[in-house]
């Protein structure tokens, strides 16, 4: 961050100061009034830019419920860092007060000032992890207790993990989860497709372990002069948890980190390559009369036979005034869901390379309005999960845990692909 903020203000919906913390002594409470006046001049605060500049002072703010969180700075600050810090402040307050609003601030002034003192020092953001803060700032319904010893994370560079963690059994669980987003038009053409992936970890490790993770990343393998046994992949738009040493990754593509305790997302990524629909759905509609319609649906799995999709759910839109729905399937079960104006087809197990059929009949009112509005047809939506399978072909080559005590940790890796926004249009 290029510079530090001068003060942090918490304002109510009318711009009145609820709490403010002066960090550098170069602004006053008048700044809050000037900020809100400037905000009102520009119109609706919710649609306003999150950064306001006036007379040598930069104001950065976010709104949550009926509270504005705003910083004032006379120095050149990294606005993105400060706005991220304000969102972290919201998360911490919600951890302590259940919900952040004007009333909860008024009821907890002492706790609020304690938290603001710990989360920012001389205008620079410090540690903002609620788990760490709650170790030494403890609240209950009536009072706050502060321990004499601050957490070890204050003096460490590892603000997301405290020392002294102990487990009888040291384990690491890593789930590689990919969500497939697809939109197909009525002509069968793929309009949009991408894959969003996440490496979700749950760590139950003692001490301060050092973890190293290796993927079949093409850049990493080429840097090491190696060739992958399977397929090397190119990942786009990679984002890491703050625990990952970015300099190390940029240098040799090694993912090295000291993990937080419990659950967190180690890494997210995106693949913008064209994705073949994993489950393809075709629909034929036959109108036998003005009041009776029959639909025939084919669902085909377009992945290899060794994989199996589970909990498949295909939601087929039907007219809102449909009645007497009767459905037959070659696999699974189908039921009319009038609250969603849809026929829901559920298949518990759908192996690769298979095709299943559904045939349904339903009745419509024989009398229609003279000026009937054409009904907007919703798309077919598909949900599924495919364990032990990823679209990208990502593979965890190794997951090592090193701790000075020398204990052996058990790593568990699991892969799963699921439907994200997966829709096929009928018209």
Contiguous low-pLDDT stretches (5 residues minimum) are 141-156, 370-374
**Count of individual helical segments:** 7
Annotation, overall tally of beta strands: 25
Strand percentage, roughly?
Answer: 35-45%
In round numbers, the mean pLDDT is 84
The major β-sheet equals: 9 strands, mixed
> Strands of the largest sheet, in order across it?
13-15-11-10-25-23-18-21-20
**Oligomeric category:** single chain
Instruction: Return the domain count.
Output: 3
Termini separation comes to 51 Å
Helix content: 10-25%
Gross morphology is globular
CATH-defined fold name of the largest domain: Beta-Lactamase
CATH class of the largest domain: Alpha Beta
In angstroms, what is the radius of gyration?
A: 28 Å
Structural class, from helix and strand content? alpha+beta
Describe the structure.
With 427 residues, the chain is α+β, with helices and mostly antiparallel strands. It folds into three domains: 7-154, Beta-Lactamase; 171-275 and 391-421, Mu homology domain, subdomain B (Immunoglobulin-like); 279-368 and 375-387, Immunoglobulin-like (Sandwich). The protein is 16% helix and 44% strand. The chain contains seven helices and 25 strands. It has helices at 30-41, 79-97, 102-107, 109-119, 130-136, 218-223, 246-252, and strands at 7-12, 17-22, 51-54, 57-64, 67-73, 120-121, 124-125, 137-139, 144-146, 171-184, 190-204, 210-215, 236-240, 255-257, 262-271, 279-289, 292-301, 308-317, 323-329, 333-337, 342-351, 355-363, 380-387, 396-402, 410-424. The strands form six sheets. A nine-stranded mixed beta sheet has the order 13-15-11-10-25-23-18-21-20, with no helix packed on it. Strands 2-1-5-4-3 form a five-stranded antiparallel beta sheet, sandwiched between helices. A hairpin with a 2-residue loop joins strand 16 and strand 17. It is globular. The two termini are 51 Å apart. The model is unreliable at 141-156 and 370-374 (pLDDT under 50). Keywords: Cytoplasmic vesicle, Membrane, Protein transport, Transport. Residues 169-425 form the MHD domain. Adaptor protein complex 1 (AP-1) is a heterotetramer composed of two large adaptins (gamma-type subunit and beta-type subunit), a medium adaptin (mu-type subunit) and a small adaptin (sigma-type subunit).
